[in-house]
Amino acid sequence: MKKISILVDISHPAHVHFFLPSVMIWREEGHRVLITSRDKDITLQLLENLGLEHTCLSRARRRALGLLLEMVEHETRLLGVVRKFRPDVMLEIGGTFIVHAGKLARIPTIVFTDTENARLANRITFPFAGCVCTPKCFQGSAGSRHVIYDGYHELAYLHPNRFQPDPAVPASAGLVPGGYIVIRFVGWTAGHDIGVKGLSPEAKLKLVRTLMRSGRVIISSESSLPKELEACRMTMSPERVHHLLAFARLYVGESATMASESAVLGIPAIFISPEGRGYTDEEEECYGMVFNFRVPQVDMAIQRAQELLNRPNLGAEWQEKRRALLRDKIDVTAWMTRFVLDFVKQRRKRDH
Question: What gap in Å lies between CA 275 and CA 65, rounded to an integer?
Answer without folding.
Answer: 23
